[in-house]
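Reviewers of the previous submission asked for a worked example of the structure-prediction workflow described in the proposal, so we include one complete record here. The input consisted solely of the amino acid sequence. No template or homolog information was supplied to the procedure at any stage.
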Amino acid sequence: MKKILFILLMSFELFAGSQMCDSGKVTKLLSDDNKGSRHQRFIVKLSSGKTLLIAHNIDLAPKVNLLKEGGFIKFCGEYENNAKGGVVHWTHRDPNKRHVGGWLEYNGQKYE
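From that input alone, the workflow returned the following structure tokens.
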């Protein structure tokens, strides 16, 4: 079992910096980060049990309205690993076209 878990963790690490699309339950709403580019921040728990920070740039895309803890959200963005599980950012279109466009979907509405 430890060997399988190690392989799964290593395979997840290999995708750092790449596009990740998934969905999960919003477990915690965090305050917006208003330093530099503003970001709406919240924690999502995936079906695997892994948690991720979603950092959604609200200077480049609309803020997710009425987001609530316990809500189900779909997302697509760039994954970066960290000690707390990872962060997904670039959940919007890149105006400079250097990143693959991402998005969030909540209550049937897409935010990109």
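The chain has a mean pLDDT of 87. We consider this example representative of the routine output the project will generate in years two and three.
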